[in-house]
Amino acid sequence: MSFVNLYGWTSSLTNIINCVTTENINIEIYTAIRKWEDLRLIFIENIKKMLELYRTRK
Questions:
Q1: This protein's superkingdom (predicted)?
Q2: 3-state class of 1 per DSSP?
Q3: CA distance 33 to 52
């Protein structure tokens, strides 16, 4: 195995590791955004309910 082949193999391995790491980070960011969206929707629903209660009490 020559130095060039070894370098090519290690750089390929590094690329694979980087892709896997990037994918995990993307999944974590996506999950965080989804959780935030869910919380935002719950918050909006609660405000709607509060407004509805406020209107019916008048």
A1: Bacteria
A2: coil
A3: 28
